[in-house]
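RECORD TYPE: inverse folding
INPUT: structure tokens
STRUCTURE:
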């Protein structure tokens, strides 16, 4: 019964959200990159309630093996589903950056108790605007965000410099382009692995979640001699 309900929601929620958002703003790609206004609020609702999105976020967090002393950063936290999962698994502190005011509002509301308790800090900022006073991080997570970054190798290099020695970066991709298949996901994983290696990370490994299309998570680690941000 639960599986049937999830399948129905997986079919209905994006169609309702996309149809309504298109009426408010035909620039759906722009809304996915930077949700804003009434259409952005619909985008946030769709992201938060689509079953595959929720499964993907919770799965990605489970791969990080978060420890009670860990400082964790999520880039592009959206409606805050993964942030909530990181708080539940007991990270010492969870930080998030997202440049959308709509997403900041939704994520803050979803994680209000953890924010009040001082365990979660959510910032309205882009990947290029991470404040130098936070970090270093034991783990950095980005879910379906990398594709929106310009010069991704440069940004990943800067993120690697913000890791603790031996810390990890996890990049998740579930292609949402029309006609995406398991091959599309495999190709995305190979591209992400190449970018992570070019950014100076190593020991890459890829995990796959069997959604339609599959979600892939490529995890790579900083060296034990990682010294943080370079001058």
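DESIGNED SEQUENCE:
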């Amino acid at each position: 019964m639960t599986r049937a309900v999830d399948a129905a929601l997986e079919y209905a929620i994006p169609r309702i959200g996309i149809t309504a958002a298109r009426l408010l703003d035909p620039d759906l790609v722009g809304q996915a990159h930077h949700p804003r206004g009434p259409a952005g609020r619909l985008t946030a609702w769709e992201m938060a309630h689509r079953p595959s999105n929720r499964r993907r976020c919770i799965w990605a967090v489970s791969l990080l093996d978060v420890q009670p002393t860990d400082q964790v950063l999520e880039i592009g936290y959206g409606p805050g589903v993964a942030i909530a999962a990181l708080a539940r698994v007991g990270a010492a502190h969870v930080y998030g950056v997202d440049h959308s005011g709509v997403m900041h509002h939704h994520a803050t509301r979803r994680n209000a108790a953890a924010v009040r308790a001082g365990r979660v800090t959510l910032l309205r900022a882009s990947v290029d605007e991470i404040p130098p006073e936070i970090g270093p991080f034991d783990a950095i997570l980005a879910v379906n965000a990398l594709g929106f970054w310009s010069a991704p190798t440069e940004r990943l290099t800067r993120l690697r410099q913000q890791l603790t020695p031996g810390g990890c970066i996890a990049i998740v991709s579930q292609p949402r382009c029309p006609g995406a298949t398991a091959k599309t996901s495999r190709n995305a994983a190979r591209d992400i692995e190449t970018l992570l290696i070019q950014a100076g990370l190593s020991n890459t490994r890829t995990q796959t979640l069997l959604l339609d299309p599959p979600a892939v998570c490529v995890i790579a680690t900083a060296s034990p001699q990682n010294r943080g941000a370079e001058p």
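NOTES: The first strand starts at residue 71 and ends at 75.
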